[in-house]
């Protein structure tokens, strides 16, 4: 932004066309300015960093129980429990360590595309084709029908593609095929803030882990990744580098960067302070879309799930692929690191989930 | 007095130059004997305290008893380092000997506050500045509507000038990886073993919320940042022990109360805001927090119509105070050194195939998170009943549970 922009209000005689033109020229100038700033590339800075040794990552658990594609999963803060949701309309809460299914809940529609575990471990949230995101309190009794206590919190005008609790059980963040995301008060169902800016379906969101904890990032079919201020509803940063739908966005552990996975078969890495893309994870041999990403605890590794049934492990600093994880027999829809970084869980269209370590 | 050879040493020369720059900049802004500034119209806004390049160069040439060329070189350096910023060609960090317009950078953005002490620690310095920027941005956001247009334009110029000189490099990402690599279970073994690999959950038991003695790795992680220390509730407990000894627990208590407000139910907002005001902000409050007058004024005014972000400016201010001062004193304190010494260093497991099979057949169920949550709530209630001064965090949860 320059002083000229700050000073000028809407002048008489300005039409939508002239404003649009000014907007385009400012956009262009912004890109030019970004380019002029002499930043080194990430892999250049990382030249002196030692290589990652050989990784021996194996499947440690296979979670069988869903009868159709598993679309989403989330870990509980206890580092071993997880919730998964599926096209079969079911939401299952598992103890991943013992493979014990603790709860199995049926939702009113199929395609439950989003699910999340509450920070307290006492509830889960889920949503999908019903255009709603509901919160279900859990109990110690596996026989109890938790779904009966389901409470509708978020309401959109199209499918729910992602949801997450904030730092407490009392607020829920949702994103939707209707192109908006929203923050909700769980107890009352009240809409606290809505976020507009995407021009097509939003497919993913992630909450920033930073100490300020007031921002989140979304990615969608308009190929844009947008960063939002939860307090004001404003879109504070925007990145348009992908050549196709962004299926997943995930923050770097420090909160200063994020990664994205796209149908253009690449994953990309964006530095928020430098305000630009700093790495592209791609290979000529990778031609299928990437659907999901997550980082290892230190941020050195990027796990990415693809539509060719594999998970690629990328070296974030050097931009190279370190290894591949084989096992699923269909698309990988979601990968998530456990809260203490000891394992990675993957969900797949082969109806199973796998835990790797 | 230093020998001539030492006086020509680069480090000495640079230090001298820095001291000279700082004193020059201060003198230049003197009302009576400094460089004459004026109000200037920039596009449609009038900016106060603007100087021309030729006036600055003339003043320096006179002051330093040197040629205009030398004065221009010196003043270009002042621009390059961010003491003075150009209002027009903001990308060209040079002093032009003409009617180009310049302004003095606000001391907030001066590079020297930590320069001398942290000459070899530029990264820490950059982080320091970044936090101040965040704080400024937060306050600016809140006061945005009240601000007059020229102030906003001036601030935008100051801020942009700052960033052109002080861009945080992508190196920060590399630094993070280096700090955490030994804590990454995919890169370094976790001790005693990774539960998913050996089917033994000792690693989780040793790292539970309320252990008497944490592990050495856990204690080390607390030292990475205040955020890490506070995020681990066991670490936060240890920090509280230190704060109690210093009789300075009110900042953390306020921060916790502000968190409870921010993430709480919409219905509880008014009650919590009132309690926080009475406990921390009102004149004569039992746990009065020492924040600057401006932030206090804004906060108290905002509490008239409380919303979840009403304490944002105050909370950020308090967090930065803890981060820059209290946190580092904690790391040097006997409390921290004590826990470092006592912390556990578990031996790596070495299971035979038979033992591994046995582990797999007897995987521990652990404690259910719902039970752990209930236990935590009980602890908070106990603390609320017993403590004086008031445990505000516990009271906040009590308000939440009542609803």
Characterize the structure shown.
Chain B: Pfam families: DEP, RGS, RGS_DHEX. Chain B: One of its GO terms (biological process) is negative regulation of signal transduction. Chain B: Keywords: Signal, Signal transduction inhibitor. Chain B: This is Regulator of G protein signaling 9a. Chain B: GO terms for molecular function: GTPase activator activity. Chain A: Pfam families: WD40_Gbeta. The complex is a heterodimer of chains A (357) and B (403). With 357 residues, chain A is mainly beta. Helix content of chain A is 8%, strand content 44%. In chain A, a hairpin with a 4-residue loop joins β15 and β16. With 403 residues, chain B is mainly α. Among the domains of chain B are: 151 residues, Orthogonal Bundle (Arc Repressor Mutant, subunit A), CATH 1.10.10; 130 residues, Regulator of G-protein Signalling 4, domain 2 (Orthogonal Bundle), CATH 1.10.167. Chain B contains 21 helices and 4 strands. In chain B, strands 1-2-4-3 form a 4-stranded antiparallel β-sheet. In chain B, β1 and β2 form a beta hairpin. Chain B starts with a helix and ends with a helix. About 3% of the residues of chain B have low confidence. Classes of the chains: A mainly beta (357), B mainly alpha (403). Chains A and B meet through α1 of A and α6, α7, α8, α9 and α17 of B.
């Amino acid at each position: 932004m320059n002083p000229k922009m700050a000073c000028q209000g809407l002048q008489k005689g300005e039409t939508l066309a002239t404003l649009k033109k000014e907007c385009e020229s400012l956009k262009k100038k912004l890109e030019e300015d970004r380019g002029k700033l002499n930043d080194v590339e990430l892999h250049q800075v990382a030249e002196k960093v030692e290589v990652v040794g050989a990784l021996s990552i194996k499947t440690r658990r296979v979670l069988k129980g869903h009868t159709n594609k598993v679309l989403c999963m989330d870990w509980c803060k206890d580092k071993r429990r997880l919730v998964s949701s599926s096209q079969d309309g079911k939401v299952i809460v598992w103890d991943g360590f013992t493979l014990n299914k603790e709860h199995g809940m049926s939702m009113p529609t199929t395609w439950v595309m989003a699910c999340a575990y509450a920070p307290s471990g006492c509830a889960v949230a889920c949503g999908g084709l019903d255009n709603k995101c509901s919160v279900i309190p859990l109990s110690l009794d596996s026989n109890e029908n938790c779904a009966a206590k389901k409470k509708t919190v978020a309401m959109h005008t199209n499918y729910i593609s992602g949801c997450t609790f904030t730092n407490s059980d009392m607020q829920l963040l949702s994103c939707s095929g209707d192109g908006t995301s929203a923050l909700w008060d769980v107890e009352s169902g009240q809409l606290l803030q809505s976020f507009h800016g995407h021009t097509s379906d939003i497919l993913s969101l992630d909450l920033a882990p930073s100490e300020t904890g007031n921002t989140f990032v979304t990615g969608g079919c308009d190929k844009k990744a947008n960063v939002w201020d939860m307090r004001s509803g404003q879109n504070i940063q925007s990145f348009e580098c992908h050549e196709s739908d962004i299926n997943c966005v995930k923050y770097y552990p420090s909160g200063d960067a994020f990664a994205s996975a796209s149908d253009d078969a690449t994953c990309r890495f964006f530095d928020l302070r430098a305000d630009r893309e700093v790495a592209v994870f791609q290979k000529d041999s990778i031609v299928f879309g990437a659907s999901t990403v997550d980082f290892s605890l230190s941020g050195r590794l990027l796990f990415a799930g693809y539509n060719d049934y594999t998970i690629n492990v990328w070296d974030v600093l050097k931009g190279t692929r370190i290894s591949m994880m084989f096992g699923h027999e269909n698309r990988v829809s979601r990968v998530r690191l456990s809260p203490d970084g000891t394992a990675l869980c993957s969900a797949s269209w082969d109806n199973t989930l796998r835990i790797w370590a | 007095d230093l020998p001539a050879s030492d006086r020509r040493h680069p480090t000495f020369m640079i230090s001298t130059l820095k001291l000279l720059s700082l004193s020059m900049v201060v003198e230049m802004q003197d009302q009576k004997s400094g460089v004459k500034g004026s109000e200037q119209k920039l596009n449609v806004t009038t900016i106060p305290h603007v100087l021309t390049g030729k006036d600055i160069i003339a003043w320096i040439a006179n002051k330093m008893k040197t040629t205009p060329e030398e004065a221009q070189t010196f003043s270009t350096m002042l621009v390059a380092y961010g003491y003075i910023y150009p209002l027009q060609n903001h990308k060209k960090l040079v002093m032009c000997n003409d009617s180009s317009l310049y302004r003095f950078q606000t001391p907030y953005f001066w590079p020297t506050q930590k320069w001398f002490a942290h000459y070899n620690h530029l990264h820490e310095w950059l982080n320091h500045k970044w936090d101040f920027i965040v704080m400024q941005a937060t306050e600016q956001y809140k006061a945005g509507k009240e601000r007059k247009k020229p102030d906003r334009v001036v601030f935008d110029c100051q801020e942009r000038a700052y960033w052109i000189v002080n861009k945080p490099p992508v190196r920060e990402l590399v630094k993070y990886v280096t700090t955490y690599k030994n804590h990454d279970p995919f890169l370094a073994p976790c001790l005693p073993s990774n539960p998913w690999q050996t089917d033994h959950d000792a690693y989780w038991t040793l790292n539970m919320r309320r252990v008497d003695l944490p592990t050495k790795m856990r204690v080390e992680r607390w030292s990475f940042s205040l955020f890490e220390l506070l995020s681990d509730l066991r670490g936060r407990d240890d920090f509280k022990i230190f704060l109690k000894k210093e009789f300075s627990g009110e900042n953390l208590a306020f921060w916790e109360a502000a968190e409870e407000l921010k993430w709480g139910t919409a219905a509880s907002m008014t009650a919590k805001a009132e309690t926080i005001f009475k406990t921390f902000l009102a004149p004569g409050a039992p746990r009065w927090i020492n924040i600057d007058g401006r932030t206090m004024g804004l906060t108290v005014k905002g509490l008239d119509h409380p919303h979840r972000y009403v304490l944002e400016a105050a909370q950020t201010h308090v967090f930065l105070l803890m981060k820059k001062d209290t946190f580092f004193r904690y790391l040097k304190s006997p409390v921290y050194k004590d826990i470092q010494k006592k912390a556990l260093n578990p031996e790596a497991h070495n299971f035979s195939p038979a033992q591994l099979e046995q582990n797999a057949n007897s995987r521990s169920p652990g404690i259910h998170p719902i039970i752990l949550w209930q236990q935590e709530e009980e602890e908070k209630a106990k603390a609320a009943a017993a403590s004086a001064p008031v445990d505000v965090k516990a009271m906040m949860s009590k308000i939440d549970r009542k609803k």
